[in-house]
Write a structure and sequence with these properties.
By secondary structure, the chain is α+β, with helices and mostly antiparallel strands. It is about 35% helix and about 35% strand. Its cofactor is Mg(2+).
């Protein structure tokens, strides 16, 4: 089951990457579990995204993942966001 979750999460990351690129953003995808999945930028604005996918009404993100996202964002000068896909709907939390 973990392979399924990983695959769905990776698909969501690629979906977001394509969506941002179509909107004129530059996007770098960091494969693996590093705390930041996408780095998105346009016209001097940078965003660091941790992406989560779930088919349930609730999702889990560890305190460690949040700390990694914030630390990376502060070091990189980016705005931290969590992107969640819940039942087909994409939400962004900062």
């Amino acid at each position: 089951m973990k392979g399924y979750k990983y695959r769905k999460g990776a698909e969501f990351e690629r979906e977001l990457k394509k969506m941002f690129e179509e909107g004129g953003f530059a996007v770098v995808r960091s494969a693996g579990s590093h705390g930041v999945d996408l780095i998105v930028g346009k016209k001097g604005k940078l965003y660091a995204l941790e992406c989560k996918y779930t088919s349930k009404e609730r999702f889990y993100i560890s305190k460690d993942d949040i700390i990694k996202l914030i630390d990376f964002s502060e070091t990189f000068g980016a705005h931290p966001y969590i992107a969640i896909k819940i039942n087909g709907e994409i939400l962004f939390i900062n």
